[in-house]
Each structure stands twice: as structure tokens, then as C-alpha cells.
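Session log. Operator J.P. requested a structure for one protein chain; no other inputs attached. Running the standard single-chain path with C-alpha cell output.
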Amino acid sequence: MCGITGYIGYGNKKILEKMTESLKHRGPDEQGFFVKDEVGFGHCRLKIIDLVTGKQPIFNEDRSIIVIFNGEIYNFKELRKKLIQQGHKFYTRSDTEVIVHLYEEKGEEFIQNLNGMFALALWDEKNKKLILARDRLGQKPLYYALAGQALIFGSEMKALLQHPNIKKELDFQSLAKYLIYEYVPVPHSILKNIYKLGPGEYLVYQNNSLKIKKYWDIKFNSNFKSQSKTQNPNYYLKELDKRIDKAVKIRLISDVPLGIFLSGGIDSATIAYYAQRNSSQRIKTFSIGFTDKSFDESRYAKTVAKFLKTEHYEQILEAKDCLDLIPQIVDFLDEPLADASVVPTYLLSKFAKKKVTVALGGDGGDELFMGYPTFQAHKLAKIYQRIPLIIRKHLINQIINHLPTSFDNFSFDFKLKKFISGFEYQPEIRNQIWLGSFTPKQLHNILNPQICKEIQQTNIFNDIKNYLNIINRESTENRLIYLYLKNYLQDDVLVKTDRASMATGLEVRAPFLDYNLVNFVNSIPHKYKLKRWQSKYILKKLMENKLPKGIVYRTKKGFGIPVARWINKELKNFTLNLFKKSKIESEGIFNYTYIQQLLKEHFSGRRDNRKLLWTLMVFEMWLEKWMK
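Structure written below.
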């Protein structure tokens, strides 16, 4: 894994070095530069494949094509063999070098041939053309900006901020999205005029003209099966077994030690099973646990490790381990992200890094196989809809709102209150309300009135609506899967995993996000994913004879920390300092009176405001670190 950055237009070696240095955590092993005329490329390398000759930038034979690359190409050996047969000469053993030769052969269509996770920048010297590209599912990040006759790009926003042409100006429309989503969705960023390239997209910059092109998107129609096999679950089970096996196998290629993140849930356990099946040695597995049993899953991870006979490593964390880290999370989150599981993800990455440089994880399983409780909640919503409005509004909702508050992980009252908070919206928007923090109505309470005037409320969910225009002919279930892959997975889960792991110099690979596997899983009818009330039905059916049934059929539990309790106790002083009246009022962004109301409700135990307060806390920490 690596960090890439650069510019076309105004810049010099000194600026480039500062940009590159800001990404050193992503690639601590070595740096590489290319500077010529108006072009500057910088690269930080984490050595994974070809430890000796794989330094970047990488060039073609006549050095007219230059590439810097972050990620892994899993099919590079097949591509390399074919390119050699076509007459190309290689000077490294790296996966990156296939890119320059593929471009020579296929032009912009070279991206279609890559199976991997990546963000890359390619400069075509003869045609004076820059190409920026991102992998199909968005596993690797890429920011860009047009500023003062320069196109500036980087793996993280902090690299762009080192360029003198970039101005730090908060985008209030993006802030409103963050408060609702808990992240800023693609293509926006929290700052004006800085954007994120979307998954499955590439950017072409030539003759001072910028174009964004799409080379791949999620599809639900499929050519995998004949009509006679459509209703046969055994066909899907056999194919799923082969495709997961292959996706895991090709991700075991590494010139450095490799292991598995093991949470004790079915997704990571499935990856561990196939990894061990494809390894002649005991696979290393890693898990962390917590002394707070409401959030601890370590015993399940231990059960899986024992069953699979892996070489298992476990670390049990005290509250202090997480609490000490919280003020530091914005060091590696240069854009606010209110997913509290970034804290244990960082600690797990740091723990695994002591033994390995590459880890495989289970990201993508919940989105592809309908594993989130929200999928079941949508089925429940159809039933709830039949109850007369007057009974729902004046009886049931009132009872739910007055349920005693519990600060346990995904407590009963928390889920019910979330359920009714989003019920009035159409299913796709409702789903986002369930996942996020503030509701659109609450924006008027939390934001300064002047900022509220600047925000176009009608555009809060325009990203979701744009996606819906693409898949409007699909079933509601498929639309929800699509939105999970396009929003929550790419802008929350994968960002969290990338930033937390890269901050420790660890590469994390996600076999479930092999695009060939994704294409196949999306061809499986949703009735085999959510069968009655059983989530992940077909995955569980596949694994019920391969893993302990107590693991396969156990209730889903999120990978979180007890934020609600900590705000009331260990984090109380820290929280109050973040929300000092003088500080909030001088910033002029939030309504201090409403923050006080949220705090009083939470401290008294009348309401669980963990998500609202944590979202505000992360933003305030980010503001202090990156904007002052």
C-alpha cells in the first residue's frame, strides 16, 4: 500500500516534497519523485510485492509514460505474461509495471483489465495527458482539485492542503450532509473546490480540460446463469464457493507476512476459512476484545481460530486504550468521519502490524448479502405502515419515545427510536436516516441560522436521488443494496478501514469486493439473501458445514466502542471542553443552546444522544486540527 500525490501546472520539487511527506504514514519504506516541466508526481511506498526493484514512479521502455500507484493488482502475473508475449520489456517484478504497458496497448481502456484495489495517476508525455483512476468499489481513496491553473491530487486531502494554490474553505452544504450521513459522500469533500473521484471512475486532464468518465458500475442483471438455473439455490451455492475461494486465494499473494482480521462474525470467519484452506501453513489471525462485555466479541473470534487451527493473536483492551486514542483520530482523519469503530479498527491494525504487513478483512459481506438489521427493518416497516397513522403517531411513537434509555450496544430502545425517526421517508432515504445522526429537521436546531440559509435543504439527499435515477427499474431490495455499496460502504466503511490501517503502515485487502465476486453475488435473487427474517441466508447456508453453527447463526454485533457511556463518564470533561460556550460561539457554526440541550439529555440518561454528540465531537476535533 502506498500514498500518491502530484500536480499538473503550477508546482515545484519543494512543494511536491511537502505534499509527499504528508502521506509518509501510508508508505514509510521509501519515497520516489518525478518532476518535469509542469508535471510533478510524488510517491510513498509500503513494500508488499517486489521489495527490491519496485520503486515508483514506474516508466515504460522509452520513459514517455509514467505511473504512480496505490494498491494491488491481483491479476498482474497473467497480464505481465501476455504483455511480454506482445514484446514489452519489464525491468521490475512489481504489479505496477503492467499498467504502463497495458496503457501502451489499450489506451484509456487499460483500466478495464485490472482486477484489484487501486488509485493511480498516469502521465502520457507524448499526448500531454493525465489520467487519474480509482478501483471499481472504491477501496483506495483519491482527491483532486482544480486551483489556479493547476490540477492537484492526492491519496488524502492533507496532501492537497500542502499546495499553495489550495484554500481552506468549509463547504456548508457538505457539512449538512456530514451531520446527516456521518460522512461526506462522493464526489464532495468537506472543503470547497476539493473533490473525491468516484469508484469505477477515471479522470482525464488534457489541454486544461477535465473530464470524468465511468468505466464500471454495479449491475444486478447477470449472464452467469441460464434460465433453467434461475431458481436453483444449489447452483448459487456451488458458484459462490468457487468464487469466494478464488477471491481469497489471489489475495494471499504477498512478499511480506500476511494475516486475517477475525472479529468472530460470519464475514471474517468465512475469509479465514478460505484463507486457511488455500494455505499450506497456519494462517495468522488477529482479534481485539474489550473489558466491556456489551461490546466484546473476542470469545467468538477465539472459537473460530480454534476450529480452523489458525495461529491466533488476541488483545483485550481497557477503556483507557481507546480513550487515549480518541483525541488523536483526526490526525489520520483529515476529513470528518463519525464512525466510532475507527478507534478499534486502528487499534486492531496497530496490533496486527506487529506480526504482519498485509491483512485480509470481511468488508463488503453485510452490503452484498443483506446482513444489516436495516434490511429486516424495512420488512417490518411494511407491516408498520398498515397501522393507522393516528395510532402510530399518538400511541406507539409516544410509547417508544418514553422507553427507558440504555447505553448498551444497539439496545432495544435505541433501535426502536431509530426506526420511527426515519419512518416518514421513502425507503431509500429512510435507510440513510436510520444509519446516520441528525435528521433534516434537526439541522435547523443545530446550525447557525445564517448557515441554514446558505444550505439548500432540497440537495441534502441529491446524491442518493442521483443514484436512484440510475437503478430506478430495480426492486426496492436491490436499490438498497446498491445504495449501501455506493454510500455507506465506500464513504464510511472503506474510508475507516483505509485511514485506520494506513496510519499504522498496514495493508488491508477485502476479498468480498473482488468485482467478479460482486457481479456474481448481485446476480443472486435477493430472496436467497434475506429469506423471511434470516439475513445472509445463502452465505450462512454455504458456511454452515464449514464453520461452527454457533458462529454462522449468531446474532450480528457491530464493531464499536461504548461511546454513550464514555461521554457520561471518562470522556465527560473532554466533551465539555470541545463544546465550551466561548469556543462554539466564536466558530459561528453551531447553536450552543441546542448542544447544551443534547448534553443535558444525555448526561441525565433521558435520551441516548451518542450519535449526535459523537458526530459533533469528531467535527470539532477535525476543525481544531485542520482549519485553525
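Operator note: Residues 476-502 form the longest helix (27 residues).
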